[in-house]
Amino acid sequence: MIDLHYWTTPNGHKITMFLEETGLPYKIFPVKIGAGEQFKPGFLKISPNNRIPAIIDHDPPGGGAPIPVFESGAILLYLAEKTGKFLPKDIRGRTETLEWLFWQMAGLGPMLGQNHHFKTYAPEKIPYAIARYVNETNRLYGVLNKRLADREFVAGAYSIADMASYPWIVPYERQGQKLEDFPHLKRWFEAIRARPATVRAYEKAKAINTQQTMTDEAKKVLFGQTAASIAAAAR
User: Fold this and answer.
1) What is the C-alpha separation between 54 and 44, in angstroms, rounded?
2) Distances from the Cα of 35 to the Cα of 16, 205, 218, angstroms
3) Cα angle vertex 22, ends 53, 11, to 5°?
């Protein structure tokens, strides 16, 4: 059994997509990040960066004590190695998959996250910041589109690299993008959206998070964090 500490964000969706694809038994423990539940001491023991998702594997490879894992990329890699699925075993395929996994972790996720923040959530609309991250989002979409021009998925066969990137493309309209401008990416996106495991993962998200709008209080929790405030919240 996998304990999945989760909320309905792109990083959270990555893990439910993988778990639904593989059929690994798991139980979701919702972490309401807008209410500050990510700062509770129990959660910080498994996710010291106070971010979702995190897992505890009660049946780790080789046996022994349960293994906690935080950071979505690390979780995908751990689960792929545990199951032997969605990560090629040959050196070239594995390397390509990990390249694009880390591309998402280092580029696509952080840049699109800043897009969301300055375009949607920031109390002050700063034109330079909005243009900076909308343009960078567009550039990254172009990188992914070019990569997909001659292959079905990012690293050939469907893999953790695709699962990592797809949830960040879902809110493309909010990011100021049009999928029609990126035909190869659009074809890839629609193929993943139609997968039964993807459908199940997003249906679970709807059932868990019934309030899709972010309150002003939640924004204060999410965007006003400092080392001191986190320490105080964890007491």
Assistant:
1) 10
2) 22, 17, 6
3) 20
List beta partners, residue 5: 29, 54
C-beta pairs of 82-87 under 8 Å, 24+ apart in sequence: 82/57, 83/22, 83/24, 85/21, 85/22, 86/18, 86/21, 86/22, 86/158, 86/159, 86/160, 86/163, 87/159, 87/160
Quick: pLDDT tens for 34-80.
Answer: 889 999 999 999 999 999 999 999 999 999 999 999 999 999 999 99
Q: Pairing relation of β-strands 2-6 and 54-57?
A: antiparallel
| pTM, rounded to two decimals | 0.93
What is the rounded CA–CA span in Å between residue 78 and residue 70? 10
- Could you report the per-residue pLDDT of 119-144, keeping only the tens digit for each? 999 999 999 999 999 999 999 999 99
For 84-215, where are the alpha helices, taking DSSP H only? 91-103, 109-116, 127-147, 160-169, 183-193, 196-208
- Classify burial at 84, counting beta carbons within 10 Å of its beta carbon; exposed 0-12, middle 13-18, buried 19 or more: exposed
Q: Is the peptide bond before 53 cis (omega within 30 degrees of 0)?
A: yes
CA distance linking residue 30 with residue 54, whole number of Å: 11
DSSP string, 1-47: -EEEEE-SSHHHHHHHHHHHHHT--EEEEE--GGGTGGGSHHHHHH-
Stretch (H or E) spanning 230: helix 227-233
